[in-house]
Structure formats: structure tokens, C-alpha cells
Design goal:
globular, alpha/beta, 6-stranded mixed β-sheet, about 50% helix
Length: about 500
């Protein structure tokens, strides 16, 4: 009986395998015929040579993250494909990913034909486990509804009050030890800036700050019946580890699950516990204390959004996404700015002079508001140059939801259209885009804010992404940078670079 079963099983398996192979070959041939009919040509290959299964490409990604060199590593991979290779394909575990740094293709994906492209498996599945279903993870009608709920609360008028930013910036200065000669000691500013931005973001969203810079200031939260108390002490490290994990798997597409995720699961639960507690607290009248009478008008996100939304699950998911996005982008931008200003004393002196003329350099100078600082043209150019070279969102992913095309990138010269069948996964490499010498000149690696005095910002500059899904907090992020820079100029005459390696770690995070 067993022999009969074996004899029947093997031919059936062989038949099924044959049918699958015939189907796969026929489908591939049909796709090639469609591409030829549309005048499309294949793109050049990037990534390691002689790597048919994409194993070395995956290893290179993990190694780049370990050495805090991810954006530069992906840029070098694209450079290796040729001088005009701005749309290249890379094989990750038999999973073809198009990496793109071409402005026209980026515009096509994010704006012109954005309805042809979805968020893809990592952002659509994995990120939703962390953020929940909110404007960062949803698509279509659900995304529009989510964004319409959040967007009105991010107009510049709501973030123009600088008291919230200023007090946490001053708290950062208190963390810097000063020697007898008046100079601060060597400090890990990337860590301090991450803590500062987390404090700002949490207070803007929740009314309470997690006070990661000064734990002694953490409030004693009231008990909510049936709700687990959040541990504020672990939120910062948990959010950072979660960001690093999603950056590691961002280019793996459907294979993201091969990277161990137990710690990531624990970290996401910690962050969601915090967001859940505050979402429920915002719906309890009188539970969250009133703001102090002496701080002037101040805007808190949950206070306002609960006027139109009473669903604690929706509130929890929205603030989780906002907290995560605000912390990583602002800390990265400020880290790059401080590194480059320490390398360019003349730029720092010019910036300090402009700020001094606009608002004064005396320590008794009243706190400026965002509208005053936006009139400082050179300060705006400094931030733009920081966004270009630092690129807080270096990579973002999309996946074709239908057969579609890209206008350029195919053929040996990279000018022919590219056919993208349904399911094609792409990675928009904003970091590599911003470092293209053919777009920015031979001084592309130089921090030169003056380039923005005459240059218009088109699709070759995607510091905040682009299209309808552009960063909703771009004015808030810019505002934080504007508010965070002047106190440095007020209190410090000069900044000296003492840790060159900081530059590599500042942009090792990836948006998915």
C-alpha cells in the first residue's frame, strides 16, 4: 500500500512542478512582450556581482547597518552600476528591487502616477504592527480620512509658539558638562538630541513630556481603571531600537520576516502602552492636568484632536506614528547640522551674525517665534543644506499595484522607459539623489548653504518626500530646527568637531 502511495505521489508532484514552471516561463515571456510593445528596456543591475540568489546583497545590508553606513553603502552600490545609472535593480534573496535616485521617476511614483503604487509589504504589514493603522500605514480612502484628521493640527500657527521647544533645548544644555576653561566636554550629541526631540514630541502630543533628558521631572501619572501604566524610562531606547530594526529590513521586501524580531515586538508593545494610556487619558475629563498659567498659549495635539475624534484606538494609532516620525527625523537633522557647522566655522559665524541681527545674542533676549526666525534667509538655507546632505528620510519603499511604467532609467544609457509589472518593489533613495554631482555640481559633498540663494527646490530635493504623502510635520520639523539653532548661537561662540565618526551614524535610519 505504501509503495502504491509513493508511486502515485511522485508523478503528481512532478506534474504540478512542471505546470508551475510552464506558467512561470509563459508569464515571464508575456511580460517581456508587453515591455517591448511599450518601448521599455531593462535597467542595469546593481549590488554584488556573481550573486544570483541575492545572499551577499542581504549580508551587505546587515553589515552596513552594523557599521552605521547604510545610506552611503546603497549610494556606492548604485554608483557601481555606471555613471548614468540612476535606476538600478538589485537582487535580495531572489527578490528584485529597483533602487531609484532619478527626479523624474521619483515624481512619477510619488505624484504623477501615485495611484499605481502602494506602500509595499514592510510598511504595509510590519509597520502597521508598530504604528497601528494610521496615516503612515494606510492607503486609499482610509489614508485620506486619517490624514484629514491629523493635518489641521500641524499648520505652522499651531507650532509657532516657541516655549515648548525652548525649554527642552535649554534642558539639553544642562546635560553638557563644562570644564574650567569654559568649553564643554566631549559629548554624544546624537543621543542627547534624540532625547530632546522625544521630550518635545511627547509633550506636543500628550501634554506630558517623557522627560528622557531629566528623569527627575517625570510626573506621577494618575491611575486609569483597566489600563496598564506606561514606563516612561524605556520609551526612548525602545523607539530607537524599533527604528533600527525597520531600517534593517527595509530592502528585504517580502523577506523581512527572516530577521529575528523578538526584541522589536517587545519594544513596540512598550511604545504602544504609552500611546494607549495617553489616548484614554485624553478622553477622561479632568484626568490630564491643566497647563501652567505662566507658560502662555500652548497647543497640544490630543487636546484638539479629541474634539473631533472620541475613538481611543484611532487616537492611539495616530499618536504612535507621529511620536515615532517626529523623534527620528528631527534628531537626525539636528545631528547633521551640528556636525557640519562644527566643520565650517565661517558658515557658523555667518549664521550667528544673522541670528544676532534678527533677534539679538544677549541671554536676556526674548524667545523668538517661528515667524520671526523664518525671515532669517541664511538660517533657512542652512537647514535646507542640512536636509540635502543629511536627509532624515534617506530611503522609502513602494510597490506597484498594477502594471505600470517609469519614464526613464532603461537601456544602456538609462534614458528608455522601464516596465514595472504588478508587484514590482522599489526603493526611493533620497540620500543618493541629494549626493548626485551632476545635479549639484562638483562641490556636492560640501556643506554650502549659499547654493540655495539662487536654486529652486524641485524634485531633485526631497528632504520631506514629495507628493500628497509628503511629510505632514515638515513645518513642525523645520520649526524645531529653527528654534533649536538660535540658543546654540546665543550661548556658544564656536563649535569644534571632536568626533568625526558621528557623521556616519547620524543618517543610518530608514523610513519604510
Amino acid at each position: 500500500m505504501e509503495q502504491l502511495l509513493q508511486i502515485g505521489f511522485l508523478p503528481a508532484t512532478a506534474a504540478l512542478l512542471s505546470i508551475y514552471l510552464v506558467y512561470a516561463v509563459a508569464q515571464k515571456w508575456n511580460l517581456r512582450r508587453t515591455a517591448r510593445r511599450l518601448g521599455c528596456q531593462p535597467v542595469r543591475s546593481g549590488g554584488p556581482k556573481n550573486d544570483p540568489f541575492g545572499l551577499k546583497a542581504v549580508w551587505d545590508i546587515q553589515d552596513a547597518h552594523a557599521s552605521e553606513d547604510m545610506p552611503h553603502s546603497r549610494m556606492r552600490s548604485m554608483d557601481a552600476a555606471g555613471p548614468n545609472a540612476h535606476t538600478v535593480k538589485t537582487n535580495f534573496l531572489m527578490n528584485q528591487v529597483l533602487e531609484i535616485r532619478d527626479p523624474l521617476n521619483i515624481k512619477t511614483i510619488l505624484l504623477t502616477n501615485m495611484h499605481h503604487w502602494g506602500l509595499g509589504p514592510v510598511r504595509g504589514r510590519l509597520s502597521s504592527q508598530f504604528f497601528g493603522m494610521n496615516m503612515f500605514t494606510q492607503e486609499g480612502k482610509a489614508w485620506k480620512e486619517s490624514r484629514s484628521l491629523v493635518r489641521p493640527h500641524f499648520y505652522v500657527s499651531q507650532v509657532a509658539d516657541t516655549y515648548l521647544f525652548e525649554k527642552h533645548v535649554r534642558e539639553l544644555f544642562l546635560q553638557l558638562d563644562v570644564d574650567s576653561d569654559g568649553w564643554t566636554r566631549k559629548s554624544d550629541l546624537s543621543h542627547l538630541l534624540s532625547s530632546m526631540t522625544l521630550d518635545i514630541a511627547s509633550e506636543f502630543l500628550f501634554r506630558y513630556s517623557v522627560h528622557s533628558q531629566n528623569p527627575a521631572k517625570r510626573p506621577n501619572l494618575p491611575v486609569i481603571q483597566g489600563q496598564k501604566m506606561p514606563d516612561m524610562a524605556v520609551i526612548g531606547p525602545a523607539a530607537d531600537r524599533a527604528a533600527e530594526f525597520m531600517a534593517r529590513v527595509s530592502l528585504l521586501g517580502s523577506w523581512y520576516w527572516i530577521v529575528p524580531s523578538r526584541q522589536w515586538t517587545l519594544d513596540t508593545k512598550k511604545v504602544m502602552t504609552l500611546c494607549k494610556w495617553f489616548a484614554n487619558a485624553a478622553l477622561e475629563p479632568g484626568l490630564v492636568p491643566e497647563k501652567p498659567a505662566d507658560v502662555g498659549p500652548q497647543y497640544y495635539f490630543l487636546d484638539e484632536v479629541t474634539k473631533v475624534c472620541k475613538d481611543p484606538d484611532i487616537l492611539r494609532q495616530e499618536v504612535a506614528g507621529l511620536l515615532f516620525a517626529a523623534e527620528i527625523t528631527t534628531a537626525t537633522l539636528l545631528s547633521w547640522l551640528l556636525v557640519y557647522l562644527s566643520r565650517q566655522p565661517s558658515v557658523y559665524a555667518k549664521l550667528r551674525a544673522e541670528v544676532g541681527e534678527a533677534i539679538g545674542l544677549d541671554q536676556t533676549t526674548p524667545i523668538p517665534n517661528a515667524f520671526q526666525l523664518r525671515k532669517c534667509d541664511y538660517l533657512q538655507n542652512v537647514i535646507s543644506e542640512g536636509l540635502r546632505l543629511g536627509t532624515p528620510i534617506p530611503l522609502t519603499a513602494r510597490q506597484a499595484t498594477q502594471d505600470t511604467t517609469l519614464p526613464t532609467g532603461g537601456g544602456e544609457d538609462g534614458t528608455a522607459p522601464v516596465f514595472c509589472p504588478k508587484g514590482t518593489q522599489i526603493a526611493l533613495n533620497f540620500f543618493a539623489l541629494h549626493h548626485r554631482a551632476d545635479l549639484y555640481g562638483d562641490d556636492v559633498e560640501e556643506f554650502r548653504p549659499e547654493r540655495w540663494e539662487t536654486r529652486e527646490k524641485g524634485w531633485e530635493m526631497c528632504g520631506f518626500g514629495g507628493g500628497p504623502r509628503t511629510c505632514i510635520g515638515r513645518k513642525t520639523l523645520g520649526g524645531k530646527a529653527l528654534i533649536s539653532k538660535p540658543p546654540t548661537d546665543v550661548y556658544f561662540d564656536r563649535a569644534i568637531r571632536v568626533e568625526p565618526s558621528l557623521l556616519r551614524g547620524c543618517a543610518n535610519r530608514t523610513a519604510v
